[in-house]
Amino acid sequence: MKKTSVLLADKHPALLQSLRDLLGTLFDTVVMVSDEKSLIETLNRFGPDLVLVDLEIPVTGEQNVANLLNRYDPELKFIVLSTHEGRGGLEKCKCSGAAGYILKRSSARNLIQAVETVQNGGTFFSV
To answer: What's the pTM value of the predicted model, to 2 decimals?
Structure first.
């Protein structure tokens, strides 16, 4: 069986822990980071199968973290977590290569559905 891994990137420790608890049953390895430097270092070392990332993580030289991840590796599967309910953020992330976009306030069921859909090669965009 293939080992699977996920990288969680959010600046809120409580949310990171909640996501880890939720996704720990779906992945063999779950790694958490809370800033751009740690995100890039972990991507370089770890090579995760999937990244769940907070849209609000500040990044240097990019419009948003979705642009940073797309520039890092256009083939990288990532889902953006956001508090922004408007379609503008969703469309920007979609154009930046995100495989998913989900509101942080969404139910655990929606998050798991998004992760499974993206892991199986699909996309999941919800506002």
So the answer is: 0.93
